[in-house]
């Protein structure tokens, strides 16, 4: 059974940083792409960043240069380092592995 558990969300002031983690179990972690998505109230879920098995990555335009995605295959954990946070980054952040989603973690950025 696949489980994805996000952690690391919270309340932070604009300009601050947070590091999200997504711990996976029940998967062959190192052979598939993974990604971080977010959904703000009243908006569609959008891709934040994705990382391949070879650690190639791509980012949504709004987070390029501020967020960094990474993965530790030995720990079956994916990370999202978020710097220079803005109020518009406020959303529930989800990790995704193939067709499975985590439960989400709330990130709130105050102005």
Please outline the helices and strands.
Elements: E1 3-7, E2 10-13, E3 18-25, E4 34-39, E5 46-51, E6 57-59, E7 67-72, E8 77-82, E9 91-97, E10 100-101, E11 105-110
Parallel strand pairs: 2-11
Antiparallel strand pairs: 1-3, 3-8, 4-5, 4-9, 5-6, 7-8, 9-10, 9-11
Would you write up a description of this structure?
This protein has 111 residues and is an all-beta fold. It has no helices and 11 strands. The chain has strands at 3-7, 10-13, 18-25, 34-39, 46-51, 57-59, 67-72, 77-82, 91-97, 100-101, 105-110. Strands 2, 4, 5, 6, 9, 10 and 11 form a 7-stranded mixed sheet that branches. It has a 4-stranded antiparallel sheet with strand order 1-3-8-7, with no helix packed on it. The protein is globular and about 40 Å long.
Separation of termini? 40 Å
> Which structural class should the secondary elements be placed in?
mainly beta
Number of strands: 11
- Low-confidence segments: none
Rg calculated over all Cα atoms: 13 Å
The helix content is under 10%
């Amino acid at each position: 059974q696949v489980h994805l558990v996000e952690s690391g969300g919270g309340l932070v002031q604009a300009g601050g940083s947070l590091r999200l983690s997504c711990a996976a179990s029940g998967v062959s972690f190192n052979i598939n792409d993974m990604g971080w998505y977010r959904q703000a109230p009243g908006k569609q879920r959008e891709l934040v960043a994705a990382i391949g098995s070879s650690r190639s990555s791509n980012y949504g335009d709004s987070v390029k240069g501020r967020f960094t995605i990474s993965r530790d295959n030995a720990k079956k954990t994916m990370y999202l380092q978020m710097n220079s946070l803005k109020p518009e980054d406020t959303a529930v952040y989800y990790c995704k592995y193939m067709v499975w989603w985590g439960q989400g973690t709330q990130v709130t950025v105050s102005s």
